[in-house]
Amino acid sequence: MSGSLDRLPRLLALVPYLLKHPGARTADVAQLFGISEAQLRRDLDLLWVCGLPGHGPGDLIDMELEGDTITLFEPAGVDRPLRLTVDEALALIVALRTLAETPGLADRDVVDRTLAKVEAAAGAAGEPAGRVEVLVEGEEQVLPVVRQALDGKRRLHLAYYVPGRDETTQRDVDPLRLLLVEGRSYLEAWDVRIESTRLFRLDRVVSVELLDVPAEDHPEAEQRDLSQGLFQASPEDQLVVLALRPGAHWVADYHPCESVEDVGDGTVVARLRTPDTAWVRRLALRLGASASVLEPVELAEQVRTDARAALTAYDH
What we know:
The protein is of the alpha+beta class. The chain has 4 domains: 4-74, Arc Repressor Mutant, subunit A; 86-131; 143-214, SH3 type barrels; 238-315, Alpha-Beta Plaits, CATH 3.30.70. The protein has helices at 4-20, 26-32, 37-47, 86-100, 108-122, 143-152, 250-254, 278-287, 297-315; strands at residues 24-25, 62-66, 69-74, 154-162, 167-181, 184-191, 196-201, 205-214, 238-244, 259-264, 267-274, 291-295. The chain has a 5-stranded antiparallel sheet with strand order 7-6-5-4-8, with helices on one face.
């Protein structure tokens, strides 16, 4: 069943469409508007009793259904499609600009043409978008080199920061594809040393070098399935629950969490899974009073032991 909030915009768009397409087939119209033919006929029954004040014979919308075709003769003033509101135009234009900046986009010219048409059609409604600049997150020095490697099928050397171990690692990789997920840029590549596919967040690439070595083909490389989200922790990974006060809220944004709950007093409780809790111990020590480990109990006790040992070292 089509609700009234969906139905009114559809009716206002249906009349000018039928006026422009006399003899349109009911099946085609229903498919275009994403409704059943039965719903389309209910819409047409309603349009028949709509029109201008007076509701005389010449004031109502007039159309003819003949077989499986529809011909509209009198639109009763509803002869132009709906226009975008300022918010709708701004959202659409910004979304298209973001898409245009997507790393590795194959049909950039199609997006640019569509954007130009939307901006022209929006007119004054799209004016605020002219003051909006869309920047896709990622190091400016890194992204061009990665694109060059993909285009030229060349190997890359990365100095890459791994927050889970709080260290910078050196990797030789054969790039596979660029991804844009939730405003962040990622490189999916074959890690030569471990002989497996890995995902590298570009804002964690400390440095990148284009090597004079061709990237090899890796038919065994499995691209990540993003249908269930970017990060999919293993059920076997350790569940860690952290209480984060205002100075540590960034942890929930920086690390993939199963859930983040605001418990009041400026504190959020973040639940995440990790195969290695050593980095959590280091993180908790660095954050001090801004964070605490709630679960598992053994990890919380390890953090307290680490903290006591660190304080003892200051006494000597």
